[in-house]
Amino acid sequence: MRKRWRAWTNVMSIVVMLAAGGGQVCAKEQSDQPARVSRSGIPAKIAFTRENNLWLLDARLPGAKPQQVEKDGLAQIVGWSANGEWLLFMKYKGSDTYSAPGFLWAVKADGSGAFQVDDRPIMDQPKWSPADLKIAYFVQTGSTEDPKSSFVIKEIKHNQADVVHTAKEVDFVDFSWMPDGKQLLVSTAAAKDRAMTLVVRDLTGKTVSTYPIAAPPNVEEGIYAWAARAMAISPDGAHVGYYLQYNSASLSADGVPIGLFDMSHPDKKPVELGTGLIHPQWLRWSPDGKQLAFIDGTDRMATYNKHLKLADPSGKVVSASPQDSVDTMPTWTTAAPYSLFFTRGKGTEYHYDPQKVMVPGQRIWRQEAGAPAKQVTQGTVQTADYFPSPSPDGKQLLFVRADRAQKGSLILAAQGKETEILSDVIGDIGYYGSYLPPWISVYWVSEPTAASLSK
């Protein structure tokens, strides 16, 4: 792997690679303008990538065309704000995400008002507040040879990002927003005579509560559990799922323990749920907090030995994933009764051919409460489906159908019919076929406009 420009430390590098993907190498065979194939209105705002660039489409408007946000450098989608008014994206001044620094940008949903949130290189993945327009992230303040980090919280106001809090000295490895958006959960690293902890802090950096989740390691052994990463917090703020990263990047790349800790009963030890790759998108709570969906399986390749499993808050795990399948991208509906969409295909040895899909015949499935999972998309073995983006009630589903490793179309599945919405959606296969970061990001609008209902 090429050395990433914004590498922090050796033990951090694996998470950065997982988040950044494999770098863009796409042949420019398509026309300059992506085509909107179907002009039917859909109550959704859609961000997507094509030939390294970011595009936006207000699909509510039947006559609307995709709008290009920027033309220079390489763009990767971070995601929509909680209210769908703003989209965050990373921008790289180069042809890939390893040899050049990445900078954080924001753009309005209509494609206007794009601005750079911070003029310093970004480390790791920026994260929206679940409640408002605050953004939290690490920036690189040292040199390439001696990288250091600062932690920043900003809030978008009046079309600019105002500083809420800055910590020039960072004493934690990772963070996640608490569900109310008023506090953060941070993880501190284990070291000689120092326990690994989870710490709740307010937005000024003041500690509210501390939870040791492992005893100090025996560092003389060489390899040990180092820190909790990519923490997924239940909607009630009581439980947290996380990946337990080792102090070895190469060992962590092939899978780490997945833990579950009950912060409402801190005297109880964490439960080990399984083993998986450090992908935040593969560890997700249901909106009612009754189930944590995760992808279990070792080996850094994302094309085989990956299985969907579900854990309840007590740590009881169930799974009906066939042994020869590969499951990824668990995504919950946001309206009750909650159901889970995910990708499933037949496990395939990792082999990259730009003219072929990575997991032939992979489709999107749906798991509803009390029922077996069912396949919900249809296609040929020459294609593979990715990025399930269900409407709140699950009655509509947007997804990408790839016909090559790095090229596909945006499809809408609804009422038993599949309709092509956009052609030539292009992205990267990600870290060993993880297809992360995503090629698309969908914000479903709860109240369709009159235009979206017209045909």
UniProtKB/TrEMBL annotation:
Transmembrane segments: none
This protein's UniProt keywords: Signal
Domain of life where this protein originates: Bacteria
Residues of the signal peptide: 1-27
Database matches in InterPro entries: 6-blade_b-propeller_TolB-like, WD40
Keyword Flavoprotein: no
Key word Kinase present: no
Pfam families recorded: PD40 (PF07676)
Family to which the UniProt record says this protein belongs: Belongs to the TolB family.
Name of the protein in its database record: PD40 domain-containing protein
Protein species of origin: Brevibacillus choshinensis
